[in-house]
């Protein structure tokens, strides 16, 4: 019996039945529950991202099961080769649960690296966006959506938010705009702003590339999440395409920044959880339990609150500051304004898009 | 003193260098005392809360300890290997010495990311990934040329006549090495060792690929813990780091006497 | 015999063991013996290169994210056909050359002052200052530079007092070069310093007493004698810069990538190990060739023993 957990009759019965394991959250099966590992390792992003999953998911998981959660904060991109090499060399994977972008998770799933999550008890109640597209099974599960918004400095736009992505081409903001350094999150917006259609991606992306080429002459800065915050804070930029969580984080800490979904729309994407193959059966069982718990309404409410993002469990209340925000879609009309590219299309074309983007930007 | 005498020009350059070396670090020092949740300079208010957080953090302390261990292993492996190699190249007429020089520079001509991937696969193959010592060895490998070239830079101090004289007087080879050869290149060995130690303490790109949640080192942990905002605890870590390094140098100075190796004869 | 110090007896033992393990007949291979540990350590990287060689000849299938079974030159063809790679390779090379020259010019006076100063505390100040830049990690360093070189940064604020500016400094090519020079400076100084300690100070005094001006003494006496240190730091700074990854991220503003950034992107962003390997190998061959040329030009063959009979 685990002493950290309050007494529970079912625990007592099962615990007495030799496994010393508990059956949390309704469980998958009522047969003997696999032995508990001392800890599970979960890959997370650092800073407030870690704090959010810790207070939303891990604390209650540990309280319920007695299994400690340890974090691996390696960037998703940088963990991937480690993970792939481990599986290839038949070593234990470095993490039990990978909190990943859906794009990267999809690549791993295409390599057949993820355990099937189909039997998780919390799956049936989730929003359709939770299901990964292009797979029969569930090698990953999407956990919330986020939007690549147009973030702007309130000093440059004191009266009203810019209403179109075309504001990035305004000579007034030359040298004062920023994008992600791989162009990620910007392609669909550029496609529409350049006069094209999202449905033409990937076949005809001329509009997108022309728009990005024009943008190059505006001398954009290219960076990563923390760069945008620093640049807004130090007055280096007025406009950036970034994920809403970063803009919100900066605003919460006193940076004079706001965001908008322009009339052309903005790209919506998702992050996922998945469980890599190659771990002992009991650890696999508990890793899946962790994912299942992360999908529960209670866990999602706290976790997604911390991130300011809409979870995949319906009926979650938005945090106060995000109510009515176009970057926190809840109603059908909100979703209609957002641009989506299927992850499979994205992964298959990423190499080429990346090459095109670099060719324009590094010239 | 004339305006354009070497002395005046040198003084000006040294002054510029000192400012350039110190400025970004001083900014971080200042930013570490902020009261807010985000790194800002000038700091908002004054508070020691980030130092409290850093010094109280068990995971940072553990990471610090691991980094120390990695640095020790790196130095222990890199200093003898590099110093002996440099002496071998300088003291003996070896065939293919040109090829050898290029080979021994591979750690610098291979981009670190590629070295990291290669080492990860190699250590993974032989089943030692997940332990700490391979990280130290990796740091020794990727920084080995520093050691070699630091010693090569001091071969001016090496006098073949002196070595021959010692040998002619009947001094056996090991004794000649320890009493004549090694002391002559000691300034290079010390500076090379210092560089090796400090760099291993700060290496993140290769270590990133060789560590896991249980073996993460301090620089890797710092590199990873940032997503949307940089919290001031990272500035505080840097400052603690610098203070510890400063103390280490003072200690080293007391024990070994850095003075001796940097002063002209 | 009993008064014989213990260290001597120990040393005799060591000599005996050494003679047993490495008999006189092998003495002409002593040079190689000394090199063996270093060769073995670098051998770990060669193992990685072998893997890269294999991987670079396989193409990524973006439907399965596995590499092809068959060998192909497609990745290398990509390198030649896509102009981006040539651009970033040339940018790395140009910057490496520039950074090497600037670093040596700035490092030599620093090393010289550090070694020759009469004041012990000044020497220590100069030494300790060298280690300051190492201890702030990449991302924190980026913020530090933003505060120094940004639009509202320290330098622009000072210039504003003089009625100048503001200037766009950070996230430009010059700021990238400057950041690299600042980062490389400690290495260069530390490699030049041992060479200067080995120069007999009386030689300089003699030169000046014979009427040579400071500059002439510098040019004809000090610099030639400091050559091993200058060569060492040139080689080190050049190779470290041409393969650098971090500084373009910190100060390049995302549009001044080096070739190592392309390597990073291939491995970590687009999951294409084959392309990353091909890029890395190309860089190794390219940089090694340049170093070989450099060593040839600088006459590093003479690096070893100086002709006997000079000086003391």
Explained architecture:
The complex is a heterotrimer of chains A (363), B (265) and C (312). Chain A folds into 2 domains: 9-145 and 270-320, D-Maltodextrin-Binding Protein, domain 2; 146-269 and 328-362, 3-Layer(aba) Sandwich (D-Maltodextrin-Binding Protein, domain 2). The radius of gyration of chain A is 22 Å and the shape is globular. In chain A, strands 1, 2, 3, 4, 5, 6, 7, 8, 9 and 10 form a 10-stranded mixed sheet that branches. Chain A is an alpha/beta fold and 363 residues long. Chain A has helices at residues 9-19, 48-65, 76-88, 102-110, 187-193, 206-216, 225-233, 244-252, 281-294, 297-307, 332-336, 343-362; strands at 39-43, 68-72, 97-101, 141-153, 177-180, 221-223, 239-243, 257-260, 266-274, 338-339. The model of chain A is unreliable at 1-27 (pLDDT under 50). In chain A, helix 2 (48-65) runs antiparallel to helix 10 (297-307). Chain B is built from 13 helices and no strands. Chain B starts with 5 loop residues before the first helix and ends with a helix. Helix content of chain B is 74%, strand content 0%. The radius of gyration of chain B is 22 Å and the shape is globular. Chain B has helices spanning 6-31, 49-56, 58-91, 97-104, 106-109, 112-125, 133-153, 160-168, 173-202, 205-210, 218-224, 233-256, 258-262. With 265 residues, chain B is an all-alpha fold. Chain B has a single domain (57-262), classed as MetI-like (MetI-like fold). In chain B, helix 3 (58-91) packs antiparallel against helix 9 (173-202). Chain C is mostly helical. Chain C has a domain at 73-199 and 228-302: Orthogonal Bundle (MetI-like fold). Chain C has 14 helices and 2 strands. A two-stranded antiparallel sheet of chain C has the order 1-2. The longest helix of chain C is centred in the N-terminal third of the chain and has 34 residues, at 83-116. The radius of gyration of chain C is 25 Å and the shape is globular. The two termini of chain C are 37 Å apart. Classes of the chains: A alpha/beta (363), B mainly alpha (265), C mainly alpha (312). Chains B and C meet through helix 1, helix 3, helix 4, helix 5 and helix 6 of B and helix 1, helix 2, helix 4, helix 5 and helix 6 of C.
